[in-house]
Design brief:
alpha+beta; Translation Initiation Factor IF3; Four Helix Bundle (Hemerythrin (Met), subunit A); 3 domains; four-stranded mixed β-sheet; two-stranded antiparallel sheet; 12 helices; elongated; binds fe (ii) ion
Length: 362
């Protein structure tokens, strides 16, 4: 059973400055359906506006007592879908049913069901899809099963997602631009990895494969370095998604990262110790690792470019990206050094010149 908690905060006992800090830190700790109950000697209406401005519809606001001497308000953290309109809820329910049908379809009917499902997916954005998937997991679909099904949804939505993702234009300093550019380099190197494996399979001996093994050494080192890419996703973006109520997608992507890390490490170790093995054994040990990475890392990147990143852009506030970038800089980079943080998107500052005319400043 879910453990729902309610924290009581008596504002009358706190100084004005403490009130704000205590409420906001308490709110950040809340899980869905948890609440804080505040008591005050007047109606704290400004706080309600502040919450709305800061967190949009993340919290409900319900008066339990309205004066004259005491005001008691319950502020509850909502599920991401709780604040939807009836129409939005209906749309989400239809999407959920379409997903369920896809899940339950026997293999021979899958193509037919997919064609029907396209209608429901037509106007769905990536965040919507992720939240519905999250609900299905909360209702009992296993994460493993959801991962398999994600591939089916992706196939159905492929064209539409691709078009949407391409429309997003971001400045060069933006964390998502950096991640996407890194993906391009990672994908190029995955292709190289695949070509090398094909050559190794026919090379026959270490002597004949010397050139490929040297490139493989560089590549396996490169892939170990890309851990920083995953680390940035996990430490700079995922916690923020979770704070906004998007909890399942980060978990799914994190599980992938763990798998990639193990395979990349083995790839590096086997490559570096190549000569200690018989050539045939060496290629046999490498094959499943490279095949796994080529297939799954490529899929992972596709899902991030087309679902996770567009969804993150919709979920995080504009200002949060500056902090994400700071965290990126602290963790460091792998494939290239990105341009410095230039918040060009900020509104220009207008200064009054001596003559009193407005002049565009920097
Ligand atoms: Fe990732
Ligand atoms: Fe990534």
């Amino acid at each position: 059973m879910m453990d729902i908690k309610a924290i009581e905060l008596d504002l009358r006992k706190l100084s004005m400055t403490d009130r704000h800090t205590r409420i906001f830190s308490a709110l950040k700790e809340l899980k869905e359906q948890d609440a804080i109950i505040i008591t005050n000697d007047h109606d704290p209406k400004p706080l309600q506006y502040l919450l709305k401005a800061e967190f949009k519809n993340t919290f409900s606001w319900e008066y339990k007592k309205q004066g004259p001497d005491e005001w008691v308000i319950e502020i509850k953290k909502l599920y991401p879908g709780d604040s939807l309109t009836a129409e939005q809820k209906g749309k989400r329910e239809k999407l959920k049913q379409a997903l369920k049908k896809l899940h339950e379809a026997p293999p021979q009917d899958l193509e037919k069901v997919k064609k029907k499902a396209v209608i429901y997916f037509k106007d769905t954005d990536p965040k919507e899809l992720a939240l519905v998937e999250q609900e299905l997991i909360q209702e009992g679909t296993s994460r493993q099963e959801m991962k398999r099904l994600c591939d089916v949804h992706l196939e159905v939505m492929k064209e539409q997602l691709g078009v949407k993702a391409k429309r997003i234009k971001l400045p060069a300093w933006h964390p998502i631009t950096i991640l996407k550019d890194e993906h391009k380099i990672i994908k190029r190197n995955l292709k190289k990895l695949k070509r090398i494996l094909e050559k190794l399979k026919t090379a026959g001996s270490f002597e004949k494969a010397r050139h490929q093994i040297n490139t493989l050494k560089e590549l396996s080192h490169f892939f170990l370095e890309t851990e920083k890419h995953h680390q940035r996703e996990e430490e700079a973006i995922f916690p923020r998604l979770i704070a906004h109520g998007v909890t399942e997608p980060p978990e799914i992507f994190k599980e992938d990262h763990v798998e990639f890390k193990t395979k990349k490490k083995s790839l590096f170790e086997i490559t570096m110790n190549a000569q200690t093995k018989d050539f045939k054994e060496f290629v046999e040990a490498l094959s499943p690792l490279i095949e796994f990475l080529v297939k799954n890392l490529d899929d992972h990147i596709y899902k991030e470019d087309n679902i996770l990143y567009p969804m993150s852009l919709e979920t995080l506030e504009k200002d949060e990206w500056k902090d994400v970038r700071k965290k990126f800089d602290a963790i460091g980079y792998c494939c290239f050094v990105p341009v410095d943080f230039q918040p060009k998107a900020d509104p220009p500052i207008y200064k009054l010149s001596v003559a009193g005319k407005k002049k565009k400043g920097r």
